[in-house]
Structure formats: C-alpha cells, structure tokens
Design brief:
Shape: globular
Largest sheet: 2 strands, antiparallel
Strand order of the largest sheet: 1-2
Distance between the termini: 32 Å
Strand content: under 5%
Helix content: 55-70%
Order of helices and strands: HHHEEHHHHHHH
C-alpha cells in the first residue's frame, strides 16, 4: 500500500501540496480506507506527507532550496554508506547488486507498446541503490539515507525524462562495486548524485520554483 501511494506521488497524480483524499482513493482502488489510512500515517512519519488536524494529509511541498539541501546531504552520506557496504561485500552482495541492476535496466528495454511507468522505474531505481548499500552496518546512516531518498521521491516527476539517458552511469557503478574498488565506486556515486542535483535544480528553476 505504501508503494502504491508513493507511485501516485512519483507520477504527479498527487502533486506537492495536494490533499490526500483517503476515501476517494479507497473508492477508486476498491479497497477499505483502513489500510490506506495506515499507509498515510507511515508516509507522514517519514516526512513525505504532512498532517494537519484541520486540513488532513497533504503531500509535502517542493522547493529549489529544499532540493539543494536534500542532495547536499545525500552527497555527503550515500558515498559513505556505499563504501561501508562494500567493505562487507561477498558473492551474495555482488549478486544482489547485479540482479537489481538488471531489473532496472530491463525496464528500459520494454516495447513502446508497453512502456515502464514512472513508478516502475522509480521503484527499480530505488531497489538498486538500496541493494548497493545493503551491507552498511551503521544503521542510523542507512536510516538517514532512507529519509533523504523518501523526500527526493517528490521531485522525480521533474526529471523523469532525464533518467533514461543516464542509465549508463549505473553500468559504471556496478562494475566498480563488483570489482571491489572502495574508492572509485563511492566517487562515481558522488558524481552521479551531483549530476542529478544539477538536472533537478535546473528543472525546478524552469518551473518557476525557488
């Protein structure tokens, strides 16, 4: 349920600042409102949604300043989490990273008659990056990274068209991870995040956000 609600945000069906109408969504999805309300509470706890006694749940707003702050923090934390994860790597870890990468790449090979949705691509992309950091033993570091990734989710729709041409960056990252290069892989991830930040800030500026 969390993933389905997140997909609505990624697709822009629930844009930043919009109200989450639980009863309407439950009717459209033909399910009970109870599990949807629980999902709303969980996403609110992660900061993706904002709760107000008078206004109910709304998707947290977006801004150029927040986007910059999110990526500044991600650039500090994610390469560190990747390096710590790689220090605990084994054949199983490498296999998980390769499998997640293949699943992500497979979405780009879907026929035009049945293209992958924005939510499919977001979830596969997130699964890939989660796999790369899965062996990090500093739990609070992983929690902080997860929170930042959750917040970035609200911005995906602004740069969705930019993601497909950049998948080669993931190929390079996987090669460095599997080779065990604990210096080059975090550096490649940092460069990937830097480019993502540039693309996003440019898109937000064009959209008139500050």
């Amino acid at each position: 349920m969390d993933a389905r609600l997140q997909a609505e945000i990624v697709l822009g069906n629930l844009p930043a600042g919009s109200r989450v109408k639980v009863n309407d969504l439950a009717r459209d999805w033909t399910l009970s409102p109870a599990p949807l309300r629980e999902a709303v509470q969980r996403l609110a706890a992660r900061g993706v949604l904002e709760m107000s006694p008078q206004r109910g749940a709304r998707v947290a707003p977006v801004s150029l300043r927040e986007a910059h702050e999110l990526y500044e923090l991600r650039m500090q934390l994610e390469p560190q989490a990747l390096r710590l994860s790689m220090l605990n790597a084994d054949e199983s870890y490498n296999a998980d990273v390769i499998d997640a990468h293949r699943s992500f790449m497979a979405l780009g090979r879907r026929p035009r008659s049945n293209p992958a949705s924005a939510s499919d691509i977001y979830l596969a992309h997130r699964t890939f990056h989660d796999a790369t950091m899965s062996r990090c033993t500093v739990l609070w570091l992983l929690r902080l990274v997860g929170v930042l990734m959750d917040q970035t989710m609200r911005y995906i729709r602004f740069t969705f068209a930019k993601e497909a041409p950049r998948r080669g960056e993931h190929d390079e990252l996987v090669e460095l991870i599997v080779s065990g290069d604990v210096n080059a892989a975090p550096r490649a991830l940092l460069e990937h995040l830097e480019r993502s930040s540039i693309y996003l800030e440019s898109a937000l500026a064009k959209a008139g956000l500050d």
